[in-house]
Amino acid sequence: MTRTLATTLCAIASLGPASEAHATLKLSAEARLRLDSYDNAQLIRGIDFRQELFRGIVGADFRFNEHLRLFGEIGTGQVEGRRSTAAANLQNDASLQQLYLEARGQVGSRELVATLGRQEFADGPRQLLSVGDGSNLHRTWNGLRLSAQGKSLRLGAFDLRLTRPRRGSFDEEINHDERIQGINASLAISADGWTKTSLDPFWFHTRKLDFRSGGLVGLDDRDTLGVRFQGSRGRLKFDWMLARQSGDFMGHDVDAWGVFAVQSIALSDKGWKPRLTSHVDIASGGGSYGVGTLRRFNQLYASSGYLGDGQFLSLSNLLLVAPGISVTPTPKTTLSFELGFARRLNEGDAAYAGGMRPYAATQKLLGHDIGNLLRIGASWAPVKNVNLTFNFERLVVGDLLRRAQLPSGSYASVGATIKY
Q1: CB distance 374 to 394 below 8 Å
Q2: Residue 83 — φ and ψ, nearest 5°?
Q3: Other CB atoms closer than 10 Å to residue 87's CB: what's the count?
């Protein structure tokens, strides 16, 4: 199989007009320092702590010619505070983050790309796929990705297995029990000076041996079929997505769905350039094990920053309406404010914190009101390659969580990132 894949890469790299070989080497580096502060973390009373997180990445991009490149990254993650209990994607002496071979070729007006090896992967809506941007070390996968890009249509296919990190040096391994396969596409519908839109259908098949759903942990074998409509029209930007999930969790049928709508509109292109923002997230919940069908939506590998790094909510059994506003006081500064109103859809299922962890006792109570999630963010890039950030989140518990005797909770972070 390895020989077949290597032959495929070489064949793609040989497509297109011949050119004189011109090898180049480009080095890169990233350092990120972040201070996190939690009060009643995950709404557990008295769990207050501070953490200092450091991420260091060095990379090398070796291009044999315009058709073939080899890319690699080595990373380290360090934690100060609760170090002994930190996961391996936070505390890690040294890790081979990425090492892949990429081949590019041209057939007519279409560009073909094949990527083989260890790589980051987030080709889809961030409500479902991300690189795990909240941790020190990103989530990485092992396998093959293929894509074909034309003038108005892009097609992609992939078969990847998760990298399981360890806390030592270069001791990560491939987790064959956690896999993602799929096909996606992007069709440009319109592209002019006023309107730019695309329609992006996708199918993901995920398999995870130790998936947590409700109070149980077991094999989740699931298909996610959906479509994404995104783009802009004048001052309006939008990103809408509909997804349906089917499959099997621990021998029980799955039938779940989610609807996610993100939009914003510019009020002015002068001064602070204020923009009204909003997102509406609806994800199904419910179902009893052994009886009927499980309707709890699986957020797959969602961006931790989408609903907040405080991890107060998951995209399951949820209705969240979150209006807000953002401004840019200077070309290098952005400020944002958002207030979300969260309710659960199904009273027979729990309300969920980040990572699909059910809030204690909520599955036994009636009511829908989870609470209100306040989010404030700021970023400043004082010089090239340097970015400073601030985030604050607070979930004020509603009637449901209050009757479950859960307190309100807060999360704040200050960070600095340097890239070269």
Answers
A1: yes
A2: -65, -40
A3: 14
CB within 8 Å of 118: residues ≥ 6 apart:
96, 97, 98, 99, 100, 140, 141, 142, 163
Q: Is the dihedral of CA 232, 235, 239, 240 positive or negative?
A: negative
**Is this prediction's pTM over 0.90?**
yes
Instruction: Report how far apart, in Å, the C-alpha atoms of 418 and of each of 54, 254, 309 are.
Output: 12, 44, 20
φ/ψ of 403, rounded to 5, equals -70, -20
Give the Cα separation of 82 and 36 in Å (integer): 12
Residues in a beta bridge with 149: 111, 154
DSSP string, 339-386: EEEEE-S-TTS--EEGGGEEPTTGGGS---EEEEEEEEEEEE--STTE
Cα 204 from Cα 300, distance rounded (Å):
10
Per-residue pLDDT of the chain (420 residues; tens, 9 = 90+): 445 555 556 556 556 555 556 899 999 999 999 999 999 999 999 999 999 999 999 999 999 999 999 999 999 999 998 888 899 999 999 999 999 999 999 998 899 999 999 999 999 999 999 999 899 999 999 999 999 999 999 999 999 999 999 999 999 999 999 999 999 999 999 878 789 999 999 999 999 998 877 667 889 999 999 999 999 999 999 999 999 999 999 888 999 999 999 999 999 999 999 999 999 999 999 976 445 689 999 999 999 899 999 999 999 999 999 999 999 999 999 999 999 999 999 999 999 999 889 999 999 999 999 999 999 999 999 999 999 999 999 999 999 999 999 999 999 999 999 999
Instruction: Determine contact, residues 286/348, Cβ cutoff 8 Å.
Output: yes
List, in order, residues 6 or more apart from 280 with CB less than 8 Å away. 259, 260, 261, 320, 321, 322
CA torsion sign for 214, 218, 224, 228 is positive
Which residues in 192-313 belong to E strands, given as ranges?
Answer: 195-213, 216-233, 236-249, 252-266, 275-283
